Amino acid sequence: MPGKTLYCLGEAWLELNSTAPLASAKTFSPCMGGSAVSLALAYAAQGGRASLLTQLGEDAFGHRIADALSTAGVDISRVCFTSRAPTPLLFDGGGEQLGCRTRSSELLYAPEQLGADWAADAEMLAFSSACLVDSPCRYAHLAALDTARTAGVPVCFVPSLRPALWPGEKTAGHGTAVSPFADILVLTADEMELLLDTREYQVGLFALLRGHTQLVVLETEEGIHAFTRAAHAFLPELSAPPEELAARLLYQISQQELTLKKLMKCSAPALQTLL
Length: 275
Description:
The protein is α/β, with parallel strands linked by helices.
């Protein structure tokens, strides 16, 4: 593999959480949010080098997120800032979510800001579906996929589908279009149903293990499955947020120095060690 950095491409927002329903909430606890941020933090917490590819607002919230990420050990040297749009916010309370990101900083992150030199020290690229809607950031994702493919950098797609944040947007359709370009796919049974209209992995695998995809990790109510075209591993009663599961998987792949060719040949017991 060319380098030792996991590049996490996508969204970074400030999450404001309350134990009360949003309509009656009076106090909120702030924290960093977004799939790209969660994955980068989880990877760095294990001792890996994670770098974030995103754009924040040139505002107090944007710099708050950047400072917190840097303190947590995530490389922010490639994070961009803009005064054209604010850092996105997500309010969460009483099981309800309200996203304030119709026009926000990360969606204006364009291909020319990403550049191509990031792949020089990249071990892997990871991204989710949150920025795949019609926006400049969607094209930044496509450019990053093209760069990764050219440079031989493996790609991991963690859909982290949250339809409530995009009323009216066909985020699942965008995810279905992109998933065959990823080498590794990490998703839940709910996400598979949104992507493929089925919860039966025996059916879904035919659609998931296609294109470049060599490894599918699927979290179900019973546990976590890992599939290659040749092997199937299952760990019952294991669960984790998708970003944490992906971070653990990618870190183990890095530690074991598994290339895609080696990954394809892993036995079921070897796949279990990655989870």
